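Sequence in, structure out. First:
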Amino acid sequence: MPDLFDSLMPRVALPPGPMLRTSRLILRPLQESDVPVFHRLINDWDICRRVPDAPFPYPESQAQAWIAAAASAREAGRAEQFAIVETLTGALVGCVGLKLSKDRKSAELGYWVGRPHWRQGFALEAVRRIIDWAFASLPITQLTAVVAADNDGSLAVLRRLGFKQTGKGHRVFSCRPGEKLPVKHFTIERETPENAAEPLLTQKTATLLVVAAALIDEQGRVLLARRPEGKKMAGLWEFPGGKLEPGETPEAALARELREELELETDPNDFAPFVFASHAYESFHLLMPVFLCRRWKGEPRPREGQKLAWVAPGNLAEYPMPAADRPLIPMLRDFL
């Protein structure tokens, strides 16, 4: 059965960009046909006084220019702006987006919802979705937000989603030229359990045995896989592999995981034991033997929504990894 949202969409091609879904919303690229509704919703004093770059009155020409600029910024890798659309009706209810820093390690969050759609939880739903997507799909390690000090609704949304207030200050808002209004600064970091306080391991702490492979191609590059949305530590890169099933040897488990995750056929006799990782996480201790593999049949295909990258050994440190994987980087770099 076709998606109801698709049947309500105008029969025109959307600009390129991600399409994100929640239980009630679609976050999609903005398009020129959004201009009239975008303008009608944002041309509201109670919205403009909370959006730093929004003048008031907000001219329709600026709405058109802003939407065009959003497409250019996405293409250039400087920003990701989304229309917030209600799935059942196809109605535009607001916008949410990210402005990336020059080094693409952080991004500033911004959003607004039109007055007819207030107090329905749309902002919370949209912001939660873009946080999950951003940390899983972009190279950023943190999100920031600057909120008017009297914007109680946005302050509540950010705090509920785990943002921490990092400071206070003043900022010029376009709707009040020449004035500096009080604002609060917030930050949320990518999920990094290894940054938590060192766990107090006890005799009851379980040891989790997993196995991983450093697949090495003819150019001497190593294959990394990026954990997809919905998984713990989404957005971090790791070596392919997984947990052992009852009765499996590490080599048999690795051959099975490579088949299930990447559609690769391997011979366990081609796995060369290389090193092992041992790391204490908060609720378990991970033990991970790592094998080198230079022979397989097929081309790696991501079957679990993960992204893949062939990486030169000298560049492995540029890819954020779970704490258990990071000590492997200098070993591979020096060996290969």
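Second:
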Amino acid sequence: MGLVQTLKDVVLTTTFDRMLKWARKNSLWPMPFGTACCAIEFMATLASRYDMARFGAEVLRFSPRQSDLLIVGGRVCVKQMPVLLKIYEQMPEPKWVISMGACASCGGVFDTYTMIQGIDQFIPVDVYIPGCPPTPEAVLDGLMKIQEKIARS
């Protein structure tokens, strides 16, 4: 061993594209759009027991211009949809969307004229998290699926 090191021991080589994907994957800045009980479960995911920060998504941003991950959880009514669209449009590229819970994904039990029956009718969704409301473990699984998608892109 000693003081002699080879160049292979000291230098790490990669492509800029792979390094950029690694950085994006491990430093997501989520913006929560929580309207009901899913928002409470999302708060539990951020707390110390589940600690979403260990996946690199600790910095919550409540400004769409500083976010790259939109997490929509809960019921979205017809009057809220223009607000959600505006938020999505203001997010810089690349951006990803998680539909959290049955209500955001398909309307849940609220099959009425006032509720959106799935946000994917208006904005593209990358990952769906099932449940009513989904558990914090499911939210973390959805976050890991987004990270896998970023790594594959």
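Remark: The mean pLDDT is 90.
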